[in-house]
Amino acid sequence: MRDYKWLHEFCLNRFGSAKVLEAMLPQPRSDAELRALSDDRYLSLISLRIFRAGLKHSLVDAKWPAFEEVFFGFDPEKVVLMGAERLENLMQDARLIRHLGKLKSVPRNAQFILDVRAGRLSGSPSSGAARHLDPQGCGECGTPAGSGSCLPEGEGHQTPPAADFSFGALIADWPVSDIVGLWKYLAKHGNQLGGLSAPRFLRMVGKDTFVPTDDMVAALKAQGVIDKAPTSQKDLAAVQAAFNQWQAESGRPLCQLSVMLAHTVNH
Q: Which residues pair with 149 in a beta bridge?
């Protein structure tokens, strides 16, 4: 595997100057920006990614205002109440992309977001940060979370502040050194977020991630990191390790390294 110095020099030669190279590289959002993004925007972007899959993006994007309308601005608490009959009725709405499986994914992913918010899902880095997963209160005496001392001052432990189980916190807090773990988490708990959908969704919201496009896979093969598209845990771990090394050498975000690597193959 080549080091970052080779990758940087290759891209400088390809694009002619550092200025041109830097201008075409993406910038990830900060953790604060990811936390500030509301749950309805996360649900909208998850759904947009799902509907874009296999279709021309401009076609889907042109119809998205109608989706925002029929799905109540993608408010998870409202969307989750949409039953099968209502979704069947949406199949008659010519303003939408009438794919029943994808329409059904919207309330299912609304439930996923609400489950994250309620702290009902384990397996994320943030879920282990709190002393207890139960958002109802202290595991020792039952005092409501965030209400202050469990016992009178000086007589015992205190309830830690209520854990932040927001979806934005989940995305922001997940370490990029294990970004493939976040892909797996989204695919496991979300609906229709397998394959490239999870990394592409994360790129859309601005979470730092690499995306195994055809060009990037070809480049990784040329570097001897993998010998096929990374779908197994072993191959994904190898790709993650390669990107972690390049990031340590360069200080660049994964998304920039991903784009740079993709440009080392013929276009």
A: 158
